[in-house]
Write a structure and sequence with these properties.
Blueprint: H1 10-23, H2 26-38, H3 46-58, H4 62-72, H5 78-91, H6 94-107, H7 113-124, H8 128-140
Helix pairs in contact: 1-2, 1-3, 2-3, 3-4, 3-5, 4-5, 5-6, 5-7, 6-7, 7-8
Length: about 140
C-alpha cells in the first residue's frame, strides 16, 4: 500500500482485525494491532480493543484476553467485557463469564443482556441452580 502512496486509516485496520478474527488468524491480528499503533501512530478506540479481545477469546485464549484488558487499561470499556463474555459463552467458561458480567453491570447496571448470557452459560453446563440464581438477580435488579 505504501509503495502505491496509500496509507491505511482506522477503518482499514478495524476491517483487518475483523478479518483476522473471523479467519482465526490471531497472531496476524495482534501484529496488525501493533503496526497500527507503532508504525501508523493511530490511537485505537474501544472498538479496536474489543475486536482484539473478541479475537483472543474466540480462539480460546480467554486468560490472554483478560490480561489484554488489564494491560491496555481499558477496564472501563463495556465493549471489551461484552466481547469477553461472549467468548466465555462459546467456551463455557463460568468464572470469567461471571467476572465479565459483574464488570458490565458495574459500568451499565441497566443492561439485562449480560445476565441472560451468564444464565445461558450455566444452563449449557447443566447447572440449573446457578442459572436460576442468575435469573433471580436479573429480577432483583428490576430488569426483565
Amino acid at each position: 500500500m505504501k509503495s502505491e502512496g496509500l496509507f491505511p486509516d482506522g477503518v482499514t485496520f478495524l476491517d483487518c482485525l475483523y478479518a483476522c478474527n473471523h479467519g482465526g488468524l490471531v497472531e496476524e491480528g495482534l501484529r496488525v494491532f501493533k503496526i497500527m499503533i507503532e508504525v501508523h501512530n493511530l490511537k485505537p478506540k474501544r472498538e479496536y480493543f474489543a475486536r482484539v479481545v473478541d479475537m483472543l477469546g474466540h480462539a480460546g485464549r480467554l486468560n490472554e484476553a483478560e490480561s489484554f484488558i488489564d494491560e491496555m487499561g481499558i477496564e472501563l470499556a463495556v465493549l471489551v467485557w461484552e466481547a469477553l463474555l461472549g467468548a466465555c459463552r462459546v467456551h463455557g467458561e463460568v468464572v470469567l463469564g461471571e467476572k465479565s458480567t459483574q464488570k458490565i453491570m458495574e459500568l451499565q447496571p441497566e443492561r439485562h443482556g449480560p445476565y441472560v448470557l451468564l444464565a445461558n452459560i450455566h444452563a449449557e453446563r447443566g447447572s440449573r441452580e446457578d442459572k436460576e440464581m442468575v435469573r433471580k438477580k436479573l429480577v432483583n435488579h428490576g430488569l426483565k
